[in-house]
């Protein structure tokens, strides 16, 4: 039995060897001007000179001279070497080492080229595998395609899938940008480039720098997605994010995760979790826990809302910040809340709408619209339009109050100094002696008034247009007369520091998919079955 098994094994091995040998097609000599045989120690060799041609399956090769080893199914070709595979791939060089059994070639020379009709690879040595149509190089390669040129120290090209793989000192040059990276995969058909490792993309028109450590780029439509320590630098702006989408032709870019936009010209930083930038209109939106910090002289203004929008007017050379819904801001000398806000960087004007409230020191100001003017980073003047209400806190129960239609307030050294109110004016304030002792509470109705304030205390009051009022002693103030209609003290919602403004982002939880139910195992019937 063992002897029979041994014979069977020998037969199987012999069959496999026969199949393998038959699969190794012999190299066919197409012709040569001169031929002679030599027998070196490695086997029978043919020396071929002049117009030498070989064919091996779908590969045709030409050269000036060659040595062919028929036993090993190999040859070495010299001078004016040309290789053609099918109708598309051609290689040119000075010296060729060809292995017929493996269908692999090593082509060397001062200038070695591989061309497939769309792309040309130039180097000084190419290893080419005719089985899969892939050429390899590791001594620097230069590639030219329709719109791009590429260089790298190590690389390969798949002539079937039209895909390049580059490694080490990779440079891709396009009419619109230059890319430097560590590893690059590029398909010449769909013109997609995939890059890995530290990557820099520089726009040749405006020197915009794009950096990332992973991403892809469509060179045909100038569309890219980048991630991993990604950022974009322009002449005066810096954008950082976890990932970004860059669309060159449409001009609309998007950023996702831990966004930071730095505008060095206007000294503003915008943070958030999702952003969109339109390069055509110079507009940028930031949502998902957005906030902005603006350097104003020696102070910083912090602003947050549901949405932040910045625009730039190229004619007026002015950048404007807009906030929408649940706006809140903090600065050392003023804090505020409103629905929407508009801040002009050129003239330092803040426009607040939608139930605006502004606090300065112990003063609270409300109106339908508030317009704040700053100079040298400090409050200078404020306009209040419609339903003006100013409250000045004296202590926890005493509040000076001014109510009217429109008003103007003036500031100096970060403090309220003067207020002018017009139309339907009502005023409540506590009259004090120089010692600080209260004399009484005065309530006046008039057409307009002007109040001068010193150290948060009412100094002089000027009433105009039919003033009518009373001074009530402190112990004889009528119940409810110490509050004007519509009085609200909103200290409980006042931002007291930048931490009250900077939002904390909590990532949205993805709904958990229920685990697949396990199939219940059928219970075995334990009942006694009748015997057959």
Quick rundown:
The protein contains one helix and 38 strands.
- The fraction of residues assigned to DSSP E strands is over 45%
Largest sheet: 38 strands, antiparallel
What is the number of helical segments per DSSP (H or I, 4+ residues)? 1
How far is it from the N-terminal to the C-terminal residue, by CA?
A: 45 Å
Subunit organisation of the chains: single chain
Structural class: mainly beta
Could you tell me the mean pLDDT? 86
Query: CATH topology of the domain at 359-475, what is it called?
Result: lipopolysaccharide transport protein A fold
CATH architecture of the domain at 359-475: Sandwich
Compile the SSE list and pairings.
Blueprint: H1 2-23, E1 28-31, E2 34-38, E3 45-56, E4 59-69, E5 74-85, E6 89-99, E7 104-115, E8 120-129, E9 134-137, E10 141-144, E11 149-152, E12 154-158, E13 163-174, E14 177-187, E15 192-203, E16 209-218, E17 223-233, E18 237-247, E19 252-263, E20 268-278, E21 283-287, E22 291-296, E23 299-304, E24 307-313, E25 318-331, E26 334-344, E27 349-353, E28 357-360, E29 363-366, E30 369-375, E31 378-385, E32 388-393, E33 399-404, E34 406-412, E35 415-432, E36 438-454, E37 457-464, E38 468-473
């Amino acid at each position: 039995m063992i002897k029979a098994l041994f014979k069977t094994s020998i037969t199987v091995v012999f069959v496999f060897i026969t199949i393998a040998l038959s699969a190794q097609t012999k190299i066919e000599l197409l012709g040569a001007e001169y031929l002679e045989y030599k027998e070196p120690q490695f086997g029978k060799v043919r020396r071929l000179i002049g117009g030498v041609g070989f064919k091996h399956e779908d590969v045709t090769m030409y050269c000036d001279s060659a040595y062919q080893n028929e036993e090993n199914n190999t040859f070495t070709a010299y001078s004016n070497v040309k290789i053609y595979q099918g109708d598309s791939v051609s290689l040119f060089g000075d010296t060729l080492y060809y292995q017929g059994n493996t269908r692999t070639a090593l082509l060397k020379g001062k200038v070695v080229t591989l061309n497939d009709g769309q792309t040309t690879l130039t180097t000084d040595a190419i290893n080419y595998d005719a089985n899969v149509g892939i050429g390899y190089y590791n001594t620097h390669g230069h590639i030219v395609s329709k719109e791009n040129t590429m260089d790298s120290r190590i690389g390969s090209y798949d002539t079937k899938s039209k895909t390049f793989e580059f490694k080490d000192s990779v440079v891709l040059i396009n009419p619109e940008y230059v890319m430097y990276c560590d590893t690059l995969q590029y398909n010449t058909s769909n013109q997609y480039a995939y890059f890995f490792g530290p990557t820099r993309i520089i726009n040749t028109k405006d020197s915009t720098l794009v950096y990332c450590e992973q991403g892809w780029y469509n060179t045909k439509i100038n569309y890219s997605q980048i991630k991993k320590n990604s950022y974009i630098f322009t002449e005066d702006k810096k954008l950082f994010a976890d990932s970004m989408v860059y669309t060159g032709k449409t001009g609309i870019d998007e950023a996702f995760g831990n966004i930071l936009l730095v505008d060095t010209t206007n000294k503003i930083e915008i943070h958030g979790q999702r952003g969109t930038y339109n390069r055509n209109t110079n507009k940028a939106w930031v949502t998902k826990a957005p906030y902005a910090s603006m350097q104003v002289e020696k102070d910083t203004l912090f602003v947050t809302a549901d949405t932040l929008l910045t625009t730039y007017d190229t004619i007026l050379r002015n950048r404007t910040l807009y906030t929408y819904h649940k706006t809140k801001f903090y600065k050392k000398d003023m804090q505020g809340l409103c629905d929407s806000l508009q801040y002009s960087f050129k003239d330092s004007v803040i426009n607040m709408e939608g139930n605006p409230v502004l606090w300065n020191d112990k003063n609270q100001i409300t109106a339908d619209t508030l317009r704040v003017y700053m100079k040298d980073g400090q409050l200078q003047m404020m306009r209040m339009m419609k339903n003006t209400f100013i409250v000045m806190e004296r202590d926890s129960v005493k509040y000076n109050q001014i109510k009217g239609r429109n008003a103007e307030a003036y500031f100096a050294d970060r403090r309220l100094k003067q207020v002018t109110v017009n139309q339907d004016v009502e005023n409540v304030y506590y009259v004090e002696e120089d010692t600080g002792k209260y004399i009484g509470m005065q309530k006046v109705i008039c057409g307009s008034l002007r109040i001068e304030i010193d150290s948060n205390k009412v100094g002089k009051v000027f009433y105009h247009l039919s003033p009518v009022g009373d001074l009530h002693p402190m112990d004889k103030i009528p119940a409810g007369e110490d509050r004007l209609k519509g009085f609200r003290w909103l200290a409980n919602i006042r931002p007291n520091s930048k931490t009250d403004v900077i939002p904390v982002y909590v990532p949205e939880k993805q709904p958990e998919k229920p685990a697949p139910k396990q199939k219940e195992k059928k219970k075995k019937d334990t009942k006694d079955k009748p015997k057959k």
